[in-house]
Amino acid sequence: MIIRKQGWIHTLLRALAHRAEAAEKAQIMLEEALGHAYEGLLITDAEGCILKVNEAYARFLQTTTDKLVGRHVTEVIENTRMHLVAKSGVAEIAQLQKIRGHEMICSRIPIFENGNVVAVVGKVMFQNIEDLFSFTENFKKLKTELEFYKRELSKHLSAKYSFGHIVGSSKELEWVKELGRKVAASNTTVLLKGESGTGKELFAHAIHNESHRKLGPFIKVNCAAIPDTLFESELFGYREGAFTGAQKKGKKGKFALADKGTIFLDEISELPLTMQVKLLRVLQEKEIEPVGAEGAEAVDVRIIAASNRDLETLVKSGMFRHDLYYRLNVVMLEIPPLRSRREDIPLLIHFHLRQLERETGIPVEGVEPDVAEVLKRYDWPGNVRELRNILEQALYVKLGTTITRNDLPAALSKGATLSTPEAGRSLKAAVRQAEEEAIRAAIREEKGDKQAAALRLGISKSSLYAKVDQYDIRL
């Protein structure tokens, strides 16, 4: 017979050759996959004779593949059920099997053709049951670590305090707490106004925890601590390659982190005018635009802002945008200074002493009656934060079981008379005393950081050092 080129017989033979070549390649790939599989793999025919076995299974049986192929499975594998699955046609998944003294987990799956079993595939998932236990233990360990890190992250992204942590029963404080509870139920923006140390952050935490957003994140931002050049990227984030030095994957901003939760903007008065415009857009449009992004992103964030400076005065002087002020000042909570609620001082003393006792491990029964009187008469320019600092200092220097007047800073006893000045004392002397105490309080509040204290007082660092020398302040 003559086979003509490009004829139908020639074309058929070429097609068959291509199919044979493809089948050969597929078989080689299958054998490679079987050979490199970590699990032990075995294939028998319907009678239980071994057709294929990979190196992993052969090594486990302490033999070679060529000594296994062609033999009946019962001859080489103890307790096998491959031939029984071939007869029943019912798969057995994740079954225990003991081979050579080892407990294994294996599966046996029948292969059908035209309704009949033609082969059975056996797979050893764990060559030793101890591998499974080890895997399980590692999984438990990783899960425990994951839960730990989730809890730690939650601590940083959630509010820690409730209204129950705001100590005091005075009418002034109770009225603000009640208003805070009412406003917490809404989504409205809240402006917290109050002197440094009055507890504005406590109120922000409490409002978040009392709201329907309490399961969402609570993100704190100190506007006074962020350099002007970093404000935009810190608040709104940036995309990959947005600027030199940017992280490869970009970075989420504080607003994106606070999505479905609350963002607390402390010391909002320090926000640069350029950023005030962008914050106004967030309030109006409910969206942010990360640095380098092609468009805006929607965010669902409640804003709580706080300031110890009078924003109205800043608006009049052009240092704060009036439209932003009105957007922030939907509901304002003005937290009273400690000198306006002196009846709360005994409660605060007891609360903070118990707290400090747990933190420091230093036992203390309380304060002497004359100490309580001094603390009640003092005007507390640093408010509750200053009170806690004074108590902590006294705790470390006390000699007995209680805090005595000798354990208090000398300036505190002097300052306690400021509200009832001695007759005939000059204005100059009163001013000097007030100035000295304000400097001492600022340094205490900033934990000895004189640069931060100078910033708090609104004077230069060199001026602060001059005053420290003048009044011989040693804290």
Overview of this protein structure:
This protein is α/β, with parallel strands linked by helices and 475 residues long. The protein has 3 domains: 37-126, Beta-Lactamase (2-Layer Sandwich); 158-336, Rossmann fold, CATH 3.40.50; 341-470, Helicase, Ruva Protein, domain 3 (Orthogonal Bundle). It has 19 helices and 16 strands. The protein has helices at 8-36, 55-60, 73-76, 82-88, 129-157, 171-184, 200-210, 231-236, 254-257, 273-285, 311-316, 322-328, 345-360, 369-377, 383-397, 410-415, 427-445, 450-457, 461-470, and strands at residues 40-45, 50-53, 92-99, 102-113, 116-126, 190-193, 218-222, 237-238, 251-252, 261-266, 287-288, 297-298, 301-307, 331-334, 366-367, 402-403. Strands 2-1-5-4-3 form a 5-stranded antiparallel sheet. It has a 5-stranded parallel sheet with strand order 7-10-13-6-14. The relative contact order is 0.06. The model is unreliable at 418-425 (pLDDT under 50).
